[in-house]
Amino acid sequence: MDFSYTPAETRFREELRAWLRDALPPGWGKTVFEPEDEDARAMGRLEWERKLHAGGWSGINWPKKYGGRGATLVEQGIYAEELARARAPEGLNIIGRNLVSATLIRHGTESQRERFLSKILSGEEVWCQGFSEPNAGSDLASIRCFAQLDGDHFVVNGQKVWTSFAQYANWCILLARTNLEAPKHKGISLLLVDMRTPGITLRPLKQISGECEFNETFLDDVRVPRENLVGEINEGWKIAMTTLAAERGAEDALGRQIRFKQELDTLLLAATSLRTGESAAIDDSALRQKLAKAVVEIEIMRLNCLRSFSRWIRGIQLGPEESMMKLYWSHAAQDLFETALEVLGPKAALAAGDASAVAGGRFQLSFLHSKAFSIYSGSSEIQRTIIGERVLGLPK
Question: Which residues belong to the active site?
Answer without folding.
Answer: 247
